[in-house]
């Protein structure tokens, strides 16, 4: 990978002229509104000193204050070799002024300054031509170079039918196989999906900038075919990227990127392999990495993985085996799903070695045997490429992995036993993308409502269940009267009928969801041990045997909201409302069987807030508010569903598609 050695800071204006109080520093124009000050020095002894700009011939009392690097207009304190940016207030531009000064308003003295030359052109985004249209319906509007690392493709199109096609950059007169992958807009390095009139923002990897490349292409590496491209002009006057580069170098001899935010390094020595996983993940997230359940595709079922995370200062690399796409649940006395090896009767074959978390970068190193002793674990191939999978997701309060937010749809094929070591990783980028805004929460508040229907559907990514409740999500969530995880309002001493259609096959680890009501917010009562259950009050949905063992009683046939097309669930965060999301779902119900009916009558012994859950899985349900009367309740930022709106939701449920 090409790496640009000299860091681009913007357009250099010059060094500050120093007159008093040890003022010094270099000044760059970042864009038309912003200065970058490097190595700034000021002794702080001026009585009434500010960053001061104006349009007169030279610095004087006619001008205005620029807020400091913290956005404040306080008197300047001492600085010693500080780097920071200053933004002109009220939308003013660098071209509107003639100088920047360190100026004292009381004594009207200029301690240091720099002039803005007549005709100066500050950096700004540059609009180029459209992508050439060569194959596979590749097209876009005019490509925009936003800054030194960011390329914008407005209304980008690609049919997704190229077998080994990527965003691709390189040097030379035209696109060729001697180039480098650019992660897609979500950071993935797998072959490109289809796009239709989408606004795509790309960041060049590592320390690479637009000054290091001559062209950008949608390129098929397997065939060497350019589907569409654009030439990048020399010496573009664009702003510098403000994305922080996070260097990371492993001591292991091999390294490959799995995603913009995840890298794997390794070394085989004797009968064991040492693996290091480095990733930009949140404090409460895990990274999963291991052998796929298939040699030809990214398959969870049958996979042999490590779940890696840091818990404050302690790192973990726990051996897991995946037998189903669900959390680890008991199926007729045997555990199935994403389970620790010791939950399946095996032993942990992973030896934790090192762990750290610095600047948002989690690094875990562990060892495992190439030929494990447990039947649950796979042999690590060294004579052929290994088919690998990875994922990133949240941990629940018990440090169990929940449904992932990042994962590979295509298998990662790596020759772990390659004869010649290669390091193909680059620095991480500290991209601070805002978390998607959650879908508007729904409150079902209808005084005359007595029948409530519970079905299951996709949890909707970070905007859906996780965004609405603030809790880690499962693969599925409860859809109540057609809405995902709504808040319910029930009145004490009234009788309600809950019709439950979450699946009644106890052989299924994924689609067996008896309904239960408790006083704790997580759910998955079956997964709690006896000691944990002592602190949970069960209000409905469970009977206890004479030996005190729980037995769910509200399991009905399966009614599943499912996507109407083969959609990439990694794109759920792009859907801005639940209504739009549900428009791409259809309701599929089992033809045999019927709904289970759970009759409840909240009384004065019930807490004011309880929770509806799946008996088997956590992260599917939400609140039930138990009230003495309905009058005076407010929406408080929620959508209130009652009357006509609720009738429409129930009407939607009358459309059925049978399995």
From TrEMBL:
Keywords: Repeat
Domain DOMON: 260-393
Domain called DM13: residue spans: 10-117, 126-233
InterPro entries on file: DM13_domain (IPR019545), DOH_DOMON (IPR045266), DOMON_domain (IPR005018), Spindle_Org/Thrombomodulin (IPR052126)
Record flagged with keyword Repeat: yes
One Pfam family in the UniProt entry: DOMON
Protein name: DOMON domain-containing protein
Protein species of origin: Daphnia sinensis
